[in-house]
Design goal:
signal; 8-stranded antiparallel beta barrel; Porin; elongated; 8 strands; single chain; mainly beta; Porin family protein; 208 residues; Beta-barrel_OMP; OMP/PagP_B-barrel
Length: 208
């Protein structure tokens, strides 16, 4: 009887050990490794460098003679050349630009002194925000304008300001749009005459 009890105890111990082993080495849920996240880096552009190109657009001459309420606005066009340099400081871009424009087709049209033609040379300082391939900017300018009308030549220098934007179509080709205004004062026969020149330009530049 004692032997049978020992065998039963041994069998029970073996069964318990097997059950414990089965539970210890039982089903284990697979560990799913998450894919590493990839940071999306926005497209960047380096604006540093020299450039040169052409521009054209519409122009308006606003004439105001002191002491008179009359205000005359003449619409014409402009076209010319420009060269410049930009320096990229990260999110801030600064630079300078020199432009020459031919002014014509300012038709008075009602028996005035005649059509206005001339030219304007502008030296500009630009400051903009680097948002990749798009560069919005503000500018201040110092300009010299010469006008001819009815055999009379006028010239003066004046300050101005404007806003614009440049776009990198390719690493070498840069497109732009700009609005700029400058104020001038010409000495007439009896008094001075104030001129405001406003231009809207489309430009294309090649980067060196």
């Amino acid at each position: 009887m004692e032997n049978k009890l020992n065998h039963a105890t041994l069998l029970a111990a073996l069964i318990c050990g097997s059950a414990t082993t089965a539970l210890a080495g039982g089903y284990t849920a697979p560990v799913v490794e998450s894919e590493p996240s990839v940071a999306v880096v926005p497209a960047t552009a380096d604006w540093t460098g020299f450039y040169g190109g052409v521009q054209l657009g519409g122009a308006e001459l606003s004439l105001q003679e002191p002491g008179l309420d009359a205000h005359l606005g003449l619409e014409g066009r402009h076209y010319g050349l420009h060269v410049g340099y930009l320096r990229d400081y990260g999110q801030f871009v600064a630079g300078g630009e020199l432009s020459y424009d031919k002014l014509d087709d300012f038709d008075v049209g009602f028996g005035g002194p005649g059509d206005f033609d001339g030219n304007v040379i502008r030296a500009k300082l630009l400051a903009g925000y680097d948002s990749g391939k798009f560069l919005p900017y503000a500018a201040v300018s110092f300009a010299r304008m010469e006008l001819e009308s009815g055999g009379i030549s006028l010239d003066d220098t004046g300050f101005g300001f404007g806003v614009g934007a440049k776009f990198l179509a390719t690493p070498r080709v840069m497109l732009g749009v700009e609005w700029m205004t400058n104020e001038f004062e010409f000495e007439a026969v009896e008094d001075s005459v104030d001129f405001d020149l406003g231009t809207v330009s489309l430009s294309a530049s090649y980067r060196f």
